[in-house]
Model the fold of this input.
Amino acid sequence: MTTSNAELRDWVEETARMTKPDRIHWCDGSELENEDLIREMTNGGTLIKLNDQTYPGCHLHRSDPTDVARTEHLTYICTTNQDDAGPNNNWMRPEEGHKQVNTLFEGSMAGRTMYVVPYVMGPVESPHARYGVELTDSPYVVANMRIMTRMGTAALRKIEASGEFVRGLHSLGDLSPERRFIMHFPEEMMIKSIGSGYGGNALLGKKCHALRLASWQARKEGWLAEHMLIMGVETPSGEIFYLAAAFPSACGKTNLAMLIPPDSFEGYRVWTVGEDIAWMHVGDDGRLWAINPEAGLFGVAPGTSQATNANAAATIQQNTIFTNVALTEDGNPWWEGLSENPPENLTDWQGRKWVPSNGPAAHPNSRFTVTARQLPNWSEKMEEPAGVPISAMLFGGRRASLAPLVYQSFDWSHGVFVGASAASETTAASTGQVGVVRRDPMAMLPFCGYNMGDYWSHWLGMEKKASNLPKIFHVNWFRQNSAGQYLWPGFGENIRVLQWIIERAQGGGEAVKSPIGYLPAPGAINSDGLDISAEAMQSLLTIDHKEWAEEMDGIEAYFDKFGDRLPAVMREHVQRIREELSQG
Ligand code: GTP
Ligand code: SPV
Ligand code: MN
Done:
């Protein structure tokens, strides 16, 4: 196979001259092609077939132990001017970036096949869909891209018709962290990633294209590309309200998007439209409309169970690729939280007999890849070209202290401040220290493809483009008591908070004004049937003025890094909140 698009043909040939693969394979996305790939990987030992009775069509992949999460310190935005990348990104001059990686790509595919993977991000017929081609020497990446995107011949035809596509070059290289780089060239709509076969480092349609490059395009074109889930909450009246929520990596997007309400919430249902990324455009009605650019789920395995997320648990029972989970002696996958006690004779994520002294049996960032269509609560709106209208946006993260369960911003500009000043404890989704609080504006710190100061200006500017923007909220499911236990039960019970959010978004709901925003009035969060003490509820819904004053210092110090790219109104919000906090 080849293509009528000369630019694509030339790029494939030119890349092959550099990387020297033994073969070039143009992916058509067919079932047959996938079966061949899976067979090749199981024969080669890079994929293990799981128990066909209990987990039909499922496989396990173990990545290199040094390659288990995104590597933010090796991720670069290469722009002509350093200020365009901003203090939130690692930066290299584009010529330097190309030079640095091209030497590593030289001959990197020798002995391997180069796969040409054409893909569409978004419903194929959506006016907001975007196209890309990933060249990769990893069959595991191809199999994952087939699940996560609309991949194959239909995508290629779209690329040929439009002539526009993002070029993504990926090679496993030698998997050495010393020779690993994830480079973005937004001025050329190009990605070059080498030395990693894992997740967002290697599935280039995901974070590299749909967030870093798309955020750059979105700013130029007047839309938003965000690290957000999209969910429909059906209320007993049958009406469905769509919400979008940005939480940092491994902070609960996948789980919230698939929420199952408790029995006391009869008539409520949640529909999943997206669980990681949202592209939002202003509609003719002045509202923000969101599409999910992805087609699959790349979810965190640990903590996923019948009890916490029955929708995900049912979804990953078939046709799923598991990465870095543990293996039972019956050929079933296992991870911490799947069952209370680990089964005997476990093989850990590195393929060794599991002993607790080696740490968790499944890697904390072990994942499942599965088509979203298998979700019991799959929303047909996932295929809707126009997307869904968003009523409320949520920002949040993991904060053991400080941030209340929920609060609402006063208006759009304050809501942008709330998103911009969000912070969260780091997780295993990225390499580095876990559990330290860092600022993660809009959960986009690792994914914004340009200067965050400009990004906040762009967000603020949406007010001029859209007459009916969503209401903005902040949530925190992770408040702890002094014994380190979560105060809020989370998961399905989060519907109680969503109920208040939906009421507020419609102009109802009881609230009290505080310096940081509107807090739920006492009793406004429905706690019928919930086993929670009055003290716990009280500490979830009150703010400590002294702690918040210190938080303002931290926020201001963070904002200072952005110099004159920081929109002035952000400092005004800090000032006003400080004054109100000091008034007691
Ligand atoms: P990425 O895919 O990395 O972007 O992560 P995500 O934001 O989709 O996070 P995910 O839903 O996969 O949750 C990550 C971890 O947080 C899992 O171990 C979950 O079990 C846990 N978690 C999710 N929601 C809640 C909650 O409401 N309360 C508590 N205590 N834990 C939660
Ligand atoms: C995240 O880290 O936010 C993820 C996983 O969703 S990855 O695809 O690796 O970026
Ligand atoms: Mn994510």
The pocket of guanosine-5'-triphosphate (ligand 1) is lined by residues 247, 249-255, 275-276, 299-300, 302-303, 308, 429, 477, 486, 490-491, 494 (CB under 6 Å). The first strand starts at residue 23 and ends at 26.
